[in-house]
Amino acid sequence: MDYLKTTLEQWRALAAVVEHGGFAQAAQALHRSQSSISYLVGKLQSQIDLPLLEVEGRKAHLTDAGHTLLTHAQELLSDAYELEELARRMGAGWEAELRLVVDVAFPKAVLVQALKRFSQEAPFTRLKLSEVVLSGAEEALLEQEADMMIGAYIPHGHLGQVLLNVPFIAVAHRDHPLIQLGRPVGEDDLKRHMHIVVRDSGTQNPRNEGWLGSTQRWTVSSLEASVSLVAGGLGFAWLPQHLVEPYLTQGVLVPIPVELGQIRQTPLYLVFGKGAQTGPAASCLAGIMQELGRQER
Q: Does the keyword Transcription apply (predicted)?
């Protein structure tokens, strides 16, 4: 492999001369002597055998070739700065990858906002996001397939902190028989109608959360599928309020006047998988999640 004729330090010196308007100004900005800046730029031009600067009085201007080459060089300089920052963060213990498992009931708007901020705070940490249902979150943590989780249950042997409460509301289509009863709806009434249930994605100890024991039960794999079926008049379900709010506003879905309460509050917990060994990236994301969770309460 041929060796490189030029160095990043030479291109950095050239960029500084152009950015700051002269050799003296570049030397001051880089905390170098003016003679060393002149030497670096002169050496650069001689090594590529191409004039890059034209000096007019005390001002230095790029030639056409200099402009083209410096544009590409600045990309290399940016990459080099990022590489050094990555090395610094890795040396400080920042994780190269973070595995986050989130219950599907967690509000997507909050999740996206948190990840957007995290991408700015930890731009060099890869994120692996998995969405699960019910026991799927704790199972991923116990199987060491997650560095942190947001779920409805705290696994045995772990500590968790409540991020926020998700209200689940009993809903049905406006023309559904449960709505047409015109009176408070009891558990026996609910058992006579199709209950749409989201299947637990966990395989070791799956739960039938919210199932009332009705023989008429359809099981789906996602909350979105449940919302679609209920909005289509195929049954009733307890669904996160943030998901059904648009349908409630439009009048497509209507809250069921359940005697024992039509809203169930489900806390979602933030739990770390590595405990005291939690790294800076995980701590950073947790802090963002906690802040946004407090705003949602």
A: yes
Strand 148-151 with 97-103, pairing: parallel
Q: What's the CATH class of domain 164-266?
A: alpha beta
What is the three-class DSSP state of 47?
helix
Fold of 97-163+268-296: D-Maltodextrin-Binding Protein; domain 2 (3.40.190)
In this structure, what token pair is assigned to residue 7?
């160095």
For residue 3 the two structure tokens come to: 């060796």
Query: Quick one: which H or E segment has residue 286?
Result: helix 280-296
Q: Which fold has domain 8-91?
A: Arc Repressor Mutant, subunit A (1.10.10)
DSSP assignment of 14-39, as one string?
HHHHHHHTSHHHHHHHHT--HHHHHH
Residues 51 and 63: beta-carbon distance below 8 Å: yes
Whose structure tokens read 């402009």?
67
Question: Which residues fall within 8 angstroms of residue 112, CB to CB, at 6 or more apart?
Answer: none
Instruction: Indicate if the pLDDT at residue 275 is higher than 70.
Output: no
Closest CA to 288 of 55, 50, 116: 116
**Alpha-carbon distance 165 to 267, whole Å?**
4
| Confidence band of 7 (pLDDT split at 50, 70, 90) | confident
pLDDT exceeds cutoff 90 at 165: yes
| Domain residue spans of the chain | 8-91, 97-163+268-296, 164-266
Whole-structure pTM value: 0.70
Six-digit token pair at 153? 């249950």
